[in-house]
Amino acid sequence: MDSADDLGLGEGQGAPTAKKQSPATSKRTDAKSARVATKKASGKKASKKLAKPNGFADEAGNTWSGRGPRPRWFKDALGAGKSPDDLRA
After folding, report:
1. pTM score, two decimals?
2. 86 to each of 4, 37, 57, 67, 71, how far by Cα in Å?
3. Hey, CA dihedral for 26, 30, 31, 33, is it positive or negative?
4. How far apart are the C-alpha atoms of 53 and 55, rounded to whole Å?
5. Residue 82: pLDDT band with limits 50, 70, 90
6. How buried is 77 (Cβ within 10 angstroms: 0-12 exposed, 13-18 middle, 19+ buried)?
7. Which of 31, 88, 45, 32 lies closest to 65 in space, CA to CA?
8. Residue 73, exposed/middle/buried by CB under 10 A (0-12, 13-18, 19+)?
9. d(Cα 35, Cα 49) in Å, to the nearest integer?
10. N or C: which end of the chain has fewer CB atoms below 10 A?
C-alpha cells in the first residue's frame, strides 16, 4: 500500500486551502451567490418587474388595470353616463 508521500500528497501538496477574502469581497460574493441561486431555483432569469400604472380609477379610490372582467363600480359609472376616457387614470 502506498503512503500519502509516495503518491505526492505530502505536506503542502494536498487539497488547496480556501484563501481569505476581505469583508467587502465576501459581501459581493454572497450577493452574487444569492442571485445565482434564485436563477437556478426558478429556472428563469431573475428580473425586476416594473410597476404598471392603474388603467382606470374613480373618485372613491377604486382602481382597475383594464384587464379581466369589468368591476361593478366601472359598470355603474358607465351606466351613470361616464365614458371610459373619463375614468382613465
Report:
1. 0.42
2. 84, 47, 9, 17, 16
3. positive
4. 6
5. very high
6. buried
7. 88
8. middle
9. 15
10. N
The residue written with cell numbers 503542502 in the block is: 12
- Cβ contacts of 23 within 8 Å, gap of 6 or more: none
Quote the cell numbers at residue 21. 477574502
Per-residue pLDDT tens digits for 25-64: 556 666 666 666 655 566 666 667 766 667 999 999 999 9
17: left (phi over 0), alpha (psi -120 to 50) or beta: beta
Q: Which of 88, 60, 86 is nearest to 73 (CA)?
A: 60
Decide if 60 contacts 73 (C-beta within 8 A). yes
Q: Domains of the chain: which residue ranges?
A: 51-58+68-89
